[in-house]
Every structure is written in C-alpha cells, then in structure tokens.
Amino acid sequence: MRLPVFDDVLAARDLLASRLPATPMWSYPVLDEAAGASVFVKHENVQPTGAFKVRGGLTLLAGMTPEQRARGLVTYSTGNHAQSIAYACAEYGAPCTVVMPEGASEEKVRGTRGYGARVLLAGADMAEAQKAAEALSDEFLLVSPGDTPELMAGVGTAYLEIFEARDGLDAVIVPVGSGTGAAAACLVAAAVAPRCRVIAVQSASSPAAHDSWAAGHTVERPNRTVVEGLATGRGFELPQRLLRSRLAEFRLVSDEQIRTAQSVFATHAHTLAEGAGAAALAAVLAAPDDFAGQRIAVICTGGNAPKPEIAALA
Ligand SMILES: Cc1ncc(COP(=O)(O)O)c(C=O)c1O
Q1: Is residue 1 part of a domain?
Q2: From ligand 1's centre to the CA of 304, what distance in Å?
Q3: C-alpha–C-alpha distance, residues 260 and 39, integer Å
Q4: CA separation, residue 262 to residues 13, 80, 184 (Å)
Q5: Which pLDDT value is given to residue 18?
Q6: Which atom of ligand 1 lies closest to the CA of 78?
Q7: Is residue 30 part of a domain?
C-alpha cells in the first residue's frame, strides 16, 4: 500500500475542481461563547451526498482507467462511504455494489440506492459486511474504505480549504472511524500549517483507531457506538501509519457527549449534524479548558442524521 503524499492532495483538488465547489466555513458568536473559543465550523454536511467522503469517491473514480470503471466496484460501509462511492460511480458510469450492515440507517441505504448502486445488507457490523464484500472481489474491484490512498488524498482537500480560509489556527479537530480524514488532515497540516495541532476524536464505545494509535500497531476492539461513521472495530493500516507520525492528540468522547454536541449544532449553529459530524465539536465541549481562547476548526463531516437522531434533538 502506497502512502499518499501532499502532492496527491493537490492533484485531487484539481480533479475535484469541476465537480465540487469549496464548502463554507462559518463561525457563530453564540457557539464561540458556549465553547469559550473561536470555533470555525467546516460545513461538509452541505456536500451533495451530505458528507465529506464524496471527495474521496470522486478522486478514486477520476483516477481509474475506463477498463477498471467498466469492471465495477464493490465496497462496504455504514453509509457515507457507501454514498460517496455510489455517487462517484454514477458520475463516471461505473457499476457499483455496496455491502452495508443489516442495521444501517434507512436513510443511508435509500441514499445509496438513489445513486443507482446495488445495496446488499449483510452482517451485524462492518466486519461482517467486509467479509461479504470480499466474497465479491473476484467479480468487482474491492475498495477498502480505509486503506485506499486515493480516498485519503481526496478527503485531504477539505483540510486544504480549511487552512487556506483561516491562518493561525491552533488546532483542527477531526472525527475518526477508519482514520482517512484525520490522516489526510495530518498530511495537509504538515505541509501548509505545521503549527496547527491535528486532534483526532473517536467514540469511547468504538475505540479501535484510538487504541491502534496508542499501541503503535493496529488492534481490534469492541464496536458498540451507535454513531454510524465512527463504528469500526479495527484500526486501518494506511491511515494509522500517517497518524502515528503526525497526529498531536487522540481523544475519546462518549456517545452521550456526541449527542449533546449534535444538539448544540442545531441550537447554536443552524446545523443538522449526524453523530459523527458532531464528534469534533463534542471534543471541544467536553474539555473547554483545553481550548479556552484558541482558534480552532471543527469539521462537521456529515449531516445524514437518521430520523431517530433528528427526533432526539427536539
Ligand atoms: C460523517 C462521518 N464523519 C466521520 C467519519 C470518519 O471518517 P474516517 O473513516 O475517514 O475516519 C465518517 C466515516 O464514515 C463519517 O461518515
């Protein structure tokens, strides 16, 4: 597996330029007051698929040969990677099969099918969905959601936009499932904002990436979070390699703290965030003293909240 480099992120930006406009980054005085810091919210929730992952899917498809696209792709996902690959395959005319765990949110399954992908529901969690996807790898090109350099280069473009929009940031905070977003943030920060700390966040109920980083090698852990997008039971090798050398800190928050942050996004920032999209803000609200008076970017990675999460905001 080849580690992506900063030039790959620059190339991805060129590939994406005609398909995705830069997303906005806003600050909100009442949110700043609640957090005790200057908080810049990067709004990936307004991407066409409702999440940052689409940057990776389009970058992957753009770089494929016509023969590779014609063969078709298979991948596995709890939902946003699924929609990203399905969207990109539709844009490039490639057949797409996505295996999602049986408990995947209705909205994300519908969204993925909406882009024309074949969705198979298999297994209780990502590990079982992965096995079902691997069983189709003779027929289709298997795309790992975590260990694919093009996906990382693509999502890195969000961090280029962040650092170009604001200088002098003290920290950028990134939610982690497989770790592609946080690893890409590290890559970009090292090149254009070396003084900015990249802080990763995961749910304490699914700490595989956190524990892999702390251990210095990939580990498996129980995967009990209700927060789709952060729900993975193992570390992924490629992002972990970048995180190991460049990440400043890795924090854990509870699912309850994530829920609270979703609510604060709704009441203080006019934003519907799904759980994973609110995890970065949760890390700030959970430890305000650590960020007091600082300039921090939190990435709202997605807005695809399932109905029960929306209902719980009321
Ligand atoms: C909304 C959202 N945020 C964060 C993540 C975690 O991203 P990564 O798997 O790149 O660590 C995901 C993963 O699917 C996601 O859907």
Answers
A1: no
A2: 11
A3: 17
A4: 29, 17, 24
A5: 96
A6: 14
A7: yes
Please determine, for residue 22, whether its predicted confidence score (pLDDT) is greater than 90. Answer: yes
**CA nearest 80: which of 234, 268, 301?**
301
| Cβ atoms of 212 and 219 closer than 8 Å | yes
Report pLDDT for 217: 98
Cα(229) to centroid of ligand 1, in Å? Answer: 5
Residue ranges lining ligand 1, Cβ < 6 Å: 51, 53, 80-81, 175-181, 229, 274, 276-277, 301-302
- The tens digit of pLDDT for each residue in 63-114 reads 999 999 999 999 999 889 999 999 999 999 999 999 999 989 899 999 999 9
Q: Which atom of ligand 1 is nearest to the CA of 182?
A: 11
Q: Report residue 293 CA to chain centroid gap.
A: 27
Domain of residue 110 covers 54-143
Specify which residues 141 forms β-bridges with.
73
Last residue of a domain, one of 114, 143, 172: 143
From 108, 112, 178, 234, the mutation candidate for ligand 1 (largest count of ligand atoms within 8 A of CB) is 178
Q: Are residues 166 and 28 part of one domain?
A: yes
Residue-wise pLDDT for 223-266, tens only, equals: 999 999 999 999 999 999 999 999 999 999 999 999 999 999 99
Q: Separation of 59 CA from ligand 1 center, angstroms?
A: 16
pLDDT of residue 78: 85
Question: How many whole angstroms from 223 Cα to the centroid of ligand 1?
Answer: 15
pLDDT of residue 303: 97
Same domain, 78 and 93: yes
In the DSSP assignment, the letter for residue 81 is: H
The CATH number of residue 79's host domain is 3.40.50.1100
For the chain, give me the number of helices (H) and strands (E)?
15, 10
Residue 291 corresponds to which tokens in the numbers above? 């960020």
Query: Looking at the structure, do residues 46 and 191 belong to the same domain, yes or no?
Result: yes
pLDDT at 313: 87
Chain segment 270-312, per-residue pLDDT in tens: 999 999 999 999 999 999 999 999 999 999 999 999 999 999 8
